[in-house]
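Reviewer 2 asked us to include a model.

Predict the structure of this chain.
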Amino acid sequence: MKIRPLPIVLTAVISAGLLVGGWFMYRNEADLKPLDRIATGVPGVVNAQPVIGRSSVTVNLTLDRDANLRTIYDTIATKGNDIIGSRELKLNIEKAGSSDKLDDAWASMLFQVAQAMDHREYAEIPAALNKAQGGNSGIQADSEMDDTNVYITLKDDKAVKYIVLPRKANTMGAWPNA
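Predicted model (structure tokens):
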């Protein structure tokens, strides 16, 4: 009996293609689409793209002007718990709506906010926001907090800046999403 290599190679390639294709379809239909539907169903979310990794689930979001970050995070974490599991949920918000005025206001309060976060004195954050709001006319600053993050929203008449600061210490010492 002579073994022919062509049928063996073809069978292996077709089997690998079916396995990989099936895995991508399952991941798309069972994980990504439901999480996308959950995220886009939250008021204030214009567009959402979930990215599922080994240790974290990152949801890339485009938000409208009246979005509430704490509500968005809580809804995605609660309704998507079956998909997220024990992985960390991260929100990555597109910065298309920010302005120089808002960036300057954020820079002026950054040291006070960073100190409050480092010392876990979260009650100092609204005071820092109020001080920056008073020093920058036309800017509205709002902050909220839950068990995992501090959410800061800065608005002026034209733009919005959303900041999500994790309450656990960051190993790099900087906030990559600010």
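The helical segments are 5-40, 69-79, 81-84, 100-118, 124-135. Residues 5-40 form the longest helix (36 residues). We have added this to the supplementary material.
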